[in-house]
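Dear Dr. H.,

I hope your travels went smoothly. While you were away I took the liberty of generating a structure for the chain from your last submission, since the lab meeting agenda had it listed for discussion. I wanted you to have the full record in hand beforehand rather than looking at slides cold. The sequence, exactly as received, is reproduced here:
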Amino acid sequence: MSTNDHIDGLLDNNQRWATETEERSPGFFSRLLKQQTPQYLWIGCADSRVPANELVGLLPGELFVHRNVANVVVHSDLNCLSVMQFAVDQLKVQHIIIVGHSNCGGVRAALQDLRVGLVDNWLRHVQDVRNHHQDWLDQLPEEQRVNALCELNVLEQARNACQTTVVQDAWSRGQSVAVHGWVYGLHNGLLKDLSVTAAGPDDVGPAYRRALEALQRRYEAAMGR
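The corresponding predicted structure, in token form, is as follows:
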């Protein structure tokens, strides 16, 4: 099969999807053209095994999505910040959800200092998370460390999102925006809320500490401590 055959197959799939969608909901695309009013901004990993809309059962127009390697939110990433600002200021989303996933390749590379290429520089952000929690991670069995760091990374990136000027400005003007942290299990298809939700500046520190303590207790309990 040639490369063009593969590409043509994607276009055929799109034709079939568009036809079936319009048959199920006549006028769907005409309505979608007029507006998008999502309540949620999903900031997740670029991993192809984590299809945002499908995981939460939402249609096009119901979920605004930004993805990058290892679901990182940093104050120097103008791409992510621009998406956040458009979502919060223009679309008026009410929830920003940071979503990591188990067995993340980017997190594994950061944990093990694997050299991949240009992305190594991006994964420095995840290595910072690893370094901050290194003593605790070293106490875990080796096979648990990747998933533990995946969850720790979600907590840190959720806190970062809360500290952006976008979210801080929204809160200061009384806009309703809550930040959440979830992790997706590749092994079972389920999303888990890490309970790091913050809906205002006073929530950020306490929510982070509670979520971190709960995460650590859960892993330590699995070790029989």
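Two observations you may find useful: The chain is about 55% helix and 15% strand. The two ends are 55 Å apart (CA to CA).

With kind regards,
E. W.
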